[in-house]
What does this fold into?
Amino acid sequence: MIRVLVPVVFACACSSVLGQLGLVEVANDLNRPVYVTHAGDGSGRVFIVESTGAIRILHADGSLGAEPFLDVSGLLEIVNGEQGLLGLAFHPEYAVEGSLGERLFYINYTGVGGGTRIASYRASDTDPDSADASSGDVLMYYDQPFPVHNGGWIGFGPDGYLYIAAGDGGGAGDPFNNASRLDEMLGKMHRIDVSSDDFPGDEDQDYGVPDDNPFVDVPGANGSIWQYGLRNPWRASFDRDNGDLWIADVGFNNWEEVNHNAGNIGGLFYGWRCREGLESYGKCGVEGWVDPQHVYGHGINGCSVSGGYVYRGCELGDSYTGKYIFGDFCSGNIWTLDPDGGYASTLQLSTSLRVASFGEDEDGEIYVVDFDFGSDGKVFRLVSTAGGSGSCDPNPCPADLNGDGALDFFDVSEFLNAYFNTDPVADFNQDGAFDFFDVSLFLGAFSAGCP
It folds into this structure.
């Protein structure tokens, strides 16, 4: 869309390979940001996870809340850059008044001793921008032998269960073969029921195991395991349209990989440490695996994949709908994969960002997290720099402010009135300011006419 072209030039040191995508900065001065998500409550808020312990709120008007939604920095152990507060997921019934999930959300963090905790918290019943820090309850705990390969993503599937991505625990080449062993929690995708407790005598295990989990009847296996054979699944996501599960798994020496589990089938073995990408790596004691749908080698492409989302929004246009958007932490590259086109990979953006993660808001628009080891982290929104818009865009003619289908003096008058009254209607680049750029973008849209 023409209205986002100007801020892209000033917001990001990047080049659009196809000339169709850009990045608009929406938040800065963040302390080690690692994730972005939404609450599904219609508020338009975006929640930003800082690995140092705070969850920040980016409001619908573009302002970043001064006070964190939650701060658990006092619970964390961070001796390595891969530790800390790593994941956030809101209960599907978070906004449903009177439900069991009302105001409930969940976090994934490494606590004292370095072990992983999955804990629930509840938002305040009087202040929607604040959580009750005293409401924390640990649902799951498991040890970490090393301070790396923690995984960290959590998310609710369309089946209502909470999924938890666990790395293999670190150490070169998974020395304990954690990822392949069903008696180990590490190197897995877990699936649990947060509404029940199958371990009433254990204060660190407060969850239920779904009856249809694939290994519930296997002697010695952890019943929470849904899939296994993962090295360091750094971000996963569900396609909001069809429920497919996508997992980006960080490689070891040579290969990064993306796994697309159509239909979210349980029991799959993704191969590590028998395989790295499409190549043999070592012995793991398991026969049979599923290969990733996409791999790329280390070097110019990068060295650490960051998983993203299948695009289901409007901003980027129809040509991106159904494509998986992902990136690399080391190179700053951002690609798309086309599952309907043989998983063809297309480089969309080459950036200078440390692409630590992606995020999705309630409308399905995509955010890119730029990590910084200090307090200069940023979040960008992925936007279109090409003309046109998606079929779900409610207003394909943005300069038609009075909605009469014509561009004339009345629309100019509407814009000027909104501009001088700081009405969001006149904030054409959605940066929260009212300035020359908004005027320029309005005039450009006005000159372009209506389709």
Notes: Residues 38 and 321 are 20 Å apart (CA to CA). Residues 1-11 have pLDDT under 50 and may be disordered. The two ends are 13 Å apart (CA to CA). Residues 436-448 form the longest helix (13 residues).
